[in-house]
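Quick one before lunch.
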Amino acid sequence: MMRAALVVENGRPVQVREIPSPEPSPGRTLVEVEAAAITPLDLLVASGTSYFGDPAKPYVPGVQGIGRVLASERFVEGSRVWFQTSAGITTEQGSMAAVAQPKDEFVVDVGEELDVVALAALGLSAVAAHRCLHEVAGIAHGESVLVLGASGVVGSSAVQFARLAGAGHVVAAGRRPGFARRALTLGANRAIDITPHESVEEYLDAYRDAAPDGFDVVIDPLCGNAATAALRHMRPGGRLVNLGSSQAPSATFDSAILRSKQLRILGYTNAELDGAAVSSTMEAVVALLREGKLSAESETHPLDQAGEAWQRAALGKCSGRAVLVLGETA
Ligand SMILES: NC(=O)c1ccc[n+]([C@@H]2O[C@H](COP(=O)([O-])OP(=O)(O)OC[C@H]3O[C@@H](n4cnc5c(N)ncnc54)[C@H](OP(=O)(O)O)[C@@H]3O)[C@@H](O)[C@H]2O)c1
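Model of the NAP complex:
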């Protein structure tokens, strides 16, 4: 038997219980979990309202985690790995348990001498930010970048990746107190506090002030008026990559602007990545973390307090990503 957090009811905090430990099975790696983040995707799928459908309950949530290999056909016993699961999306069980059993394809050897909590916090949000900037937007040296939701893990990672990619001008937009100071420290040239902005015109004024020449690339986890205004302040050939709808489910575009500037509006989801793509991007993330070029804010909680941590994350009260820590990491 083992301790695990369980989603028992849609939209309610997880409950910690004893459940049977998983047994070794072909094509899967048994991992003794050290850290598991509570991400927006975990909360969304557990709400039962996402386009993934209403998951069968109870289930162990956690779409990603870090730990040490207990048994595997592919990985050395005792090595440290990051892994992804489809908990809540399929019947696969997740990372918020003493032992997880991800598919070998979605396990990445991350080596020793690593800030486990920071990597847990970065996880798939950093993977998404990296791929949106490089594979989807195809950022070029010297380009001007707007990052929306810059206080979040996607946004703060995107600010750091844009700077590392040699962006000419990086504007970070967010609303959490203290976010601007951190964004500027991470490499943004300007930080916009969007708290007072509601209308498209208000956003537009702020964007014009922060980047008079417009944006080549917009990383957009928000949608809504923040994105509508961004689409009106882009340079010819600009690319807006949307990967979330934290502000609103839709945004609008002006046909004349879209056509005359030959803009591109692009969608992104991690859900379409195969194991090789996840691994290669995660290896890039791990390398930058190890070199001290990448960071993420987080708060840690022991597994036994998973319910409280889940509630804090659901209410947006966390100082950075909530990360459950187990074993020696706790
Ligand atoms: N498509 C994909 O594959 C993929 C991958 C990863 C993430 N995502 C999505 O991207 C979004 C951000 O992910 P994350 O990991 O960065 O989450 P996060 O760390 O929880 O950050 C959420 C960000 O959104 C902001 N935000 C939330 N509601 C807002 C609102 N109504 N108006 C303005 N800003 C708002 C937050 O601002 P405060 O700090 O002020 O609350 C914060 O900056 C989520 O929707 C997530 O589901 C998508």
